[in-house]
């Protein structure tokens, strides 16, 4: 028998901020959203993903043949945009569009379908009885949304230090 451990994270928050995958364009200060942006999503930072994987590997007796769900935090898109505006000192323009409008604008349908799922509340990990395993790994102190936003802005800003 093959032993396994499946590690499931929330959406990678850095991808939401640094790329247009979720509809945020950091450089143009825009957010093309589907719906009102007020549905919760589960997010996990890239550093937290690594910390959870390391913690999981140290506990094989607990995680053997398990489907593990971990995350940094749940948030809707309003606090993300609010923090981006606060930290950059610039207003983001928000466009509320339907999936059909985004496809007509040239956004690939598979991406629009993914955005729709992540913006309508289906991106919450611990809904429907799914167990969130964060408490099993108390050594992992997840990043906050504010910490992630500040780090992303630092990395995306011109003249940043490597």
Backbone shape: globular
Distance between the termini: 46 Å
Largest sheet: 3 strands, mixed
- SSE string: EEHEEEHHEEHEHHH
CATH architecture: 3-Layer(aba) Sandwich
In what order do the strands lie side by side in the largest sheet? 2-5-7
Helix content class: 25-40%
Mean pLDDT: 90
Count of domain modules = 1
CATH class group: Alpha Beta
Report the β-strand fraction as a percent range.
15-25%
Total count of helical runs of at least 4 residues? 7
**Would you identify the CATH H-level superfamily?**
NAD(P)-binding Rossmann-like Domain
Count of extended strands: 8
Structural class: alpha/beta
> Per CATH, what is the topology?
Rossmann fold
Q: Measured on Cα atoms, how large is the radius of gyration?
A: 17 Å
As residue ranges, the low-confidence spans are none
